[in-house]
Amino acid sequence: MVIILVLNSTWLETFIVLAEEGHFTRAAARLNMTQPGVSQHLRKLEQQLGRALISKEGKRFTLTAAGEAVRDLGLARRVEEQALRDTITRDDPDRGELRIACSGSFAMLFYPRAIALMKEAPGLVIHVEATPQARVLEGVLAGHFDLGIVSDVPHHPRVEAQQLGQEELCLLLPAEVEDPVSFETLEALGLVAHPDVANYADDLFSRNFPKDFAGADRLKLRTYINQISQIPSPVAAGVGYTLLPRSGLAAFAQSAQIRTARLPQPRYRELWRITRRGRIASARLKRVLAVVENIAATLG
What we know:
By secondary structure, the protein is α/β, with parallel strands linked by helices. The chain has two domains: 9-89, Arc Repressor Mutant, subunit A, CATH 1.10.10.10; 92-300, 3-Layer(aba) Sandwich (D-Maltodextrin-Binding Protein, domain 2), CATH 3.40.190.290. Helices cover 44% and strands 22% of the residues. It contains eleven helices and eleven strands. It has helices spanning 9-21, 24-31, 35-49, 65-89, 104-120, 133-142, 183-189, 197-208, 232-236, 246-250, 283-297; strands at residues 54-57, 60-63, 96-102, 124-130, 147-150, 159-174, 191-193, 221-224, 242-245, 258-260, 267-276. Helix 8 links the parallel strand 7 (191-193) and strand 8 (221-224). Helix 1 crosses helix 2 and helix 1 crosses helix 4 (65-89). The longest helix has 25 residues, at 65-89.
């Protein structure tokens, strides 16, 4: 059987002050207590421990070995408690850790800004995870992510959502392909496919090419890539076309070699920020949110 000894914090603090002052009267004055009150706390602490903590020599006293051990413990607790108070009361925008989850395309825009923030504030730690929307929601609910960026508002009772704006769903073509683009031209180029392209195609093509489009599974495939940063590369080289949110093109270094088609029925995907309901935003999260909102404003 393990016995856990929990020391009375009031008695312990009285003993620490007594040890620091080396005198009952001075300790009582410092604690705003009577001298008998100090003596009573000492006796109760000794009874709880089953050991004498001081050795009296007339009006003076010295600490016993047990008393020295208890004093050292008390002083260490003081330091730990002060550190705890500092931690829970400090709300410094330049310090602490944040975990953010979003799509791969948004991550490419956000992460360079996150690096800049961390360079300005060495005490700030930002983790960015590019992951599917369902994983973003799961992570926010589980407390793994402080902030999530998603394209569809999640209707969940434990999530708070706020719309950041919207971003255009873009049909990306080699720069030499001119408007208006026909479905026949797209089929001649072939699709640069990626994990989300089927959903994008069903959304955009069903409205802009209703007579010719028979579903994403019927599109002519030119190539496939699952690295978000590389999806526009074949298009820039003249090899095929693809569909991406505007953020996927905005972060691409060779965007000048790609043209966004002008379509009769443009489509937009909403951008939402999500956090766990009831969680108060820290100063560092507010700082990052300002950056996220700024990025979202450029994508509408």
